[in-house]
Specification:
The complex is a heterodimer of chains A (517) and B (109). Chain A has 517 residues and is an alpha+beta fold. Chain A contains 21 helices and eleven strands. Classes of the chains: A alpha+beta (517), B alpha+beta (109).
Chain lengths: 517, 109
């Protein structure tokens, strides 16, 4: 009894041994089937018909030689066949980028320059007279000082004072309106940029905003408020850094359109390149499937709904998890630590100005210990009221449990390579987050001040004075999405992978079932 | 027909056939056989390497199609470059044909 599938399988094995690509084998197999069926319809015996079909096709070795180096050649042609995918991806990305650029609102910018006096002269002087090591140390110190001023310049409470000075409704005129000083401050804070040059002791400040009439007056107000603040901190008689003066080297410039073709073009090129690369990968994958999997690619494509289904289920699951997840709100405040050395009661100038962590890791640690002190947390809990804190955590009036809630939500850390301590607090109750953070920091500042007064006044008259100021008031709590996003991405990815695996598995099973038949 | 001539005429014939619409290997062979009144008989195996070379040249392109019988067929269709190649080759064949007929003896052609 003639078995077509068995004979075909034998023939395929022989052909495959000559190194022909699967895609070619699939095509030739279809040809054999067509020829065989036609002959059988015309009345030829099956065995005879198959032998004739094989004869007409020619011996495997000769056929393979005819195809030459068909492996690489057919890969090249498969790639050529799929090259439109590259152009499609790159084109779509280019189009998206162009559309985004067209609809991007015009932003205006005003710029100003500040000169930090002693730094500028000190660094310049040390460049010629002092050793390399000393010069590097000087530069490092200068950059730390400049960075601390930048922190103050970009602080939320400075932005808020400016917003109030300009009037919030004017600030928000072109960005949705409203009278909320916090919203106005946040808008301004987003637009302020500062960069420093330790070599020259210069801080370049720029403000970007969609309102052309606003950028220059706001920046002027900004410098005004900063100067007052700076004076309040630096010009106090007991403060040795009072010696540091900061002058406005260049007043806020007239507004100009902020339109960096270079920046935009590089963004354009980046996105288009990304699209191009995506298309390239797509082309390679599609070409490889064609050449090495042959018509299996077609079978797999028939099962693509499985892939779509799994990806969809993954997306839906991720969306559900995201929606069901308890919402956590977070707010953050920053404390700036200034640390001076006083020698034998004599205030030495700027030269002995030290900043943690360079000179005071111990000081930063001590302040962090104070901030996380359980007694401080308990006092905070009592001030806010345990009942209010525990409302969303099962209720009750137990101050110990309220303290634990505060402890769990509190994150205190030193921002690396700076003298700033970041204090953040997270909790499911948005209305509770800023008051707790406010209460905690103000209690801390009181204790800190009294602790340091004792240290200075009695035990250690020639000792250290730390001066801590809050450079960012707790902004309204915002929803903490970062963690949820990673879970979201993971679930969606899992769905996609499962779909891919199912699709390929189903395709392979189909093919195997057909061959077995 | 001599083997050399069959091989040389394969490309223009395939291009001419595909310029009328897409087709697959077995059907191409049958169509050429019918149109030549069985005078041109290709070794079936020879057609496929030619098709693949022409595809590498960018003259034709292919796609897999699921047929009604559940069989997968590779269909070929002509590209812009293929149409240009067809015109060139047609011109060459016609030139040979003109010279041949100018010598007479084949008045019925």
């Amino acid at each position: 009894m003639f078995n077509l599938e068995y004979q075909l399988g034998k023939w395929r094995a022989e052909m495959a041994a000559t190194g022909l690509a699967v895609e070619i084998l699939d095509e030739l197999e279809t040809h054999l089937r067509d020829d065989f069926e036609q002959q059988v319809r015309d009345g030829t015996e099956p065995a005879e018909a198959f032998a004739a079909a094989l004869r007409r096709l020619g011996p495997p070795r000769e056929l393979s030689a005819e195809f030459g180096r068909s492996g690489s050649a057919s890969m090249a042609c498969a790639l050529r066949r799929h090259r439109w995918k590259v152009w499609l991806c790159a084109g779509v990305c280019l189009l998206v980028e162009i559309v985004l650029n067209v609809f991007r609102p015009q932003v205006y910018v005003s710029e100003a320059t500040l000169l930090v006096q002693p730094l500028a002269t000190q660094v310049a002087a040390s460049a010629s007279t002092e050793t390399e090591a000393k010069r590097v140390a000087n530069l490092e110190r200068a950059s730390r000082i400049l960075q601390s001023e930048v922190d103050v310049l970009r602080s939320f409470d400075l932005a808020k004072n400016v917003a109030i000075g300009i009037r919030p409704e004017i600030v928000l005129r072109l960005v949705g309106g409203g009278k909320d000083p916090n919203g106005a401050a946040a808008t301004l804070q987003r637009g302020i940029y500062a960069d420093t040059s330790p070599q020259s002791g210069v801080i370049r400040l720029s403000l970007r905003h969609v309102d052309a009439d606003l950028v220059q007056p706001v920046l002027r107000e900004w410098l005004q408020v900063y100067a007052e603040k700076h004076r309040a901190v630096h010009m106090r008689t007991d403060n040795p850094a009072g010696a540091m003066t900061i002058v406005v080297q260049q007043a806020p410039t007239a507004p100009r359109a902020d339109f960096f073709w270079g920046e935009r073009l590089s963004g354009l090129a980046r996105l288009t390149l990304a699209g191009f690369l995506t298309g390239l990968v797509w082309m390679l994958v599609a070409g490889t499937i064609d050449v090495y999997l042959g018509s299996l690619g077609l079978v797999v494509r028939r099962h693509k709904w499985k892939f779509v289904l799994c990806a969809g289920v993954g997306l839906a699951t991720a969306e559900t998890i995201y929606a069901l997840r308890p919402v956590v709100y977070r707010s953050e405040t920053k404390l700036y630590v200034r640390y001076f050395v006083r020698e034998a009661g004599v205030l030495v100038g700027d030269a002995n100005w030290r900043e943690p962590p360079a000179g005071g890791v111990a000081i930063m640690d001590r302040e962090m210990d104070r901030l996380t002190n359980i007694e401080l947390l308990r006092q905070t809990a009592l001030q806010i009221g345990p009942e209010r804190i525990l409302k969303k955590a099962g209720g009750g009036q137990d101050p110990e449990r309220a303290t634990t809630v505060i402890q769990r939500g509190l994150i205190v850390q030193v921002i690396p390579r700076s003298s700033v301590i970041s204090v953040s607090f997270q909790h499911p109750d948005a209305n509770l987050v800023p008051p707790i953070l406010n209460e905690l920091t103000s209690l801390y500042l009181e204790q800190h001040a009294s602790a340091n007064r004792i240290e200075v006044g009695a035990a250690d008259p020639a000792g250290k004075v730390s001066n801590i100021s809050m450079i960012q008031l707790p902004p309204p709590a915002f929803r903490d999405k970062v963690k949820a996003k990673s879970i979201f991405v993971q679930v969606v990815l899992a769905g996609i992978m499962a779909g891919l695996a199912w699709m390929v598995a189903a395709g392979v099973m189909d093919r195997r079932a057909k061959l077995a038949r | 027909m001599r083997k050399e001539l069959v091989a040389a005429s394969a490309e223009p014939l395939i291009l001419a056939l595909l310029s009328e619409g897409e087709s697959y290997g077995y059907a191409i062979i049958q169509e050429i056989k019918t149109r030549s009144r069985e005078e041109i008989q290709w070794t079936d195996g020879m057609l496929y390497p030619v098709l693949h070379r022409m595809e590498d040249n960018g003259w034709i392109k292919s796609r897999w199609v699921d047929s009604d019988a559940g069989r997968k067929r590779k269909y070929y269709s002509i590209c812009k470059d293929g149409k240009k190649a067809l015109e060139t080759q047609r011109g060459e064949w016609m030139a040979v044909h003109r010279v041949m007929t100018s010598f007479g003896g084949a008045a019925h052609v």
